[in-house]
Task: inverse folding
């Protein structure tokens, strides 16, 4: 297979995909951290948990993107595509096998399946071998666009992380009041004979 | 039937040592396949935790609860049902998806490992690329087969339990006590024997599906007849397999403990000298790294044992199949 994507380019694409999801969750955590009342806090917690459970849809969305456009958002931005040995787009289920089951296998034993990309001559990880896919470069400008996207996402994530830290620091008295209230209630419930 | 077990073991050792790609399938099976005990224990602990909860809080005590409880109560009633529905559905989907994915992965790895070991036994060079499609090809039939086995096991259990239950209820007086003792013994033994036979049937049937292209029900019937006809040699193979597994597993764990636990103790020991003090960042990182490596090395040993065991069963199956073919021809 010609135009195999380099390890750096694949790492960049993977990082973009990761930072996109991380950024979304950091945004939700920011909302949680800036909650000023116990009701807001619980509402945000419920939203975060719901979205956390819904990450289960991510492999389906990614598989759809791979079968329709040839790659995940990270791959599209870095100008790389996932193809079969004939150089064509892969089917939905093959993409699913690669991106979900394959990633599970690759992440076992110290992520050796991903490290394999650097070892293998064809630049294929275990997930690529499982689904018989290749990652190729289709747009050389993708490296620059990918780098810029990565930088923007990284900055956005750092900003969100900083904001979370600021919100938590500012909300310390509120957290203390909640903890005090809970411990007071706990003490009261222990002293109430009806409960015993 | 004459089976050279030592030859099987030595060939399996060679296959396990030479074909490292097979270890990947072993790893998948260890990670997603050995979940039976874990599930059982987690179910039990869940039950115990539930039991430990205090009974319902009496209404009279509601007035003593403070701001946090009131807020929690107010919040619970303020959240719209659609939000709870979305939360519940997403949680249900997550559980369903994780279970389905691990089941598919386990079945795929099982089929691929059986096919890979067979390829290695015939002098081929199995790789992830060459054996993955074989695993995927047998996936559907193996899933149907596991559903059949589940149904049969459930039916068998219900038949045995209801037979002894009904007889117990029909009898009276001393006979009932005698039946309770005798029934438990005989019923338990019958269940154990049936489960052993079912386990042996699985070993044959799975290989018949993957290597000989049998359909699930056909494979189950043929597997049952093979395990019945070669019951004793299969028991011997199972005992040898378990003995080797236990010995290597125990020795492997001891070696791992020696490699990883001793440095961990050397790291922890200074923390307790002159009274306990919290470890520094490098110590925490080193301890986590040691635990992480210990877990992964343990997985690798179990994966090797899985490949070895599958290889033993594959070679044993080939011997039994050869004998079956010879008998058919004669």
Result:
């Amino acid at each position: 297979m010609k135009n195999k994507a380099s390890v750096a380019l694949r790492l960049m694409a993977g990082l973009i995909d990761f930072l996109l999801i991380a950024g979304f969750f950091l945004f939700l955590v920011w909302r949680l951290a800036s909650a000023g009342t116990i009701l807001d806090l619980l509402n945000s917690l419920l939203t975060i948990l719901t979205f956390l459970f819904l990450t289960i849809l991510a492999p389906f969305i990614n598989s759809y993107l791979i079968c329709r456009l040839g790659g995940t958002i990270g791959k599209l931005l870095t100008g790389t595509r996932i193809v079969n040995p004939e150089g064509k787009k892969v089917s939905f289920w093959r993409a699913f096998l690669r991106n979900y089951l394959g990633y599970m296998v690759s992440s076992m034993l110290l992520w050796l399946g991903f490290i394999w990309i650097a070892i293998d001559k064809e630049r294929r990880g275990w997930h690529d071998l499982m689904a018989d896919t290749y990652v190729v470069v289709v747009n050389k400008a993708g490296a620059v666009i990918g780098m810029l996207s990565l930088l923007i996402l990284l900055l956005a994530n750092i900003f969100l992380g900083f904001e979370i830290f600021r919100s938590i620091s500012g909300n310390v008295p509120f957290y203390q009041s909640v903890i005090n209230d809970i411990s007071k209630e706990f003490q009261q419930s222990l002293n109430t004979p009806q409960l015993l | 039937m004459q089976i050279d077990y030592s030859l099987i073991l030595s060939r399996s050792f060679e296959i396990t040592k030479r074909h490292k790609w097979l270890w990947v399938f072993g790893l998948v099976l260890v990670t997603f396949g050995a979940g039976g005990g874990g599930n059982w224990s987690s179910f039990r602990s869940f039950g115990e935790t539930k039991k430990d909860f205090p009974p319902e809080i009496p209404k009279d005590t509601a007035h003593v609860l403070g701001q946090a409880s009131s807020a929690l109560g107010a919040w619970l009633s303020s959240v719209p049902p659609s939000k709870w529905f979305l939360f519940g559905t997403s949680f249900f989907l997550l559980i369903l998806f994780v279970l389905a994915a691990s089941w598919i992965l386990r079945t795929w790895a099982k089929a691929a490992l059986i096919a890979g070991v067979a390829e290695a036994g015939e002098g081929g060079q199995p790789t992830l690329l060459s054996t993955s499609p074989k695993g995927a090809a047998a996936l559907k039939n193996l899933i149907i087969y596991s559903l059949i086995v589940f149904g049969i096991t459930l039916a068998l259990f219900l038949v045995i339990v209801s037979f002894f239950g009904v007889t117990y209820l029909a009898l009276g007086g001393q006979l009932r006590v005698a039946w309770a003792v005798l029934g438990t013994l005989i019923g338990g033994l019958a269940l154990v024997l049936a489960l052993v036979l079912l386990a042996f049937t699985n070993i044959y049937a799975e290989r018949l599906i993957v290597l000989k292209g049998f359909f699930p029900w056909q494979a189950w019937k043929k597997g049952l007849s093979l395990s019945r006809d070669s019951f004793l040699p299969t028991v011997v193979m199972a005992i040898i397999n378990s003995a080797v597994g236990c010995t290597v597993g125990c020795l492997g764990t001891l070696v791992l403990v020696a490699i990883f636990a001793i440095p961990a103790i050397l790291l922890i020991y200074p923390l307790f000298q002159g009274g306990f003090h919290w470890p520094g960042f490098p110590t925490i990182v080193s301890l986590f790294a040691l635990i992480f490596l210990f877990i992964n090395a343990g997985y690798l040993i179990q994966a090797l044992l899985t490949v070895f065991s599958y290889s033993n069963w594959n070679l044993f199956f080939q011997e039994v199949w050869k004998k079956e073919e010879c008998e058919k021809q004669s």
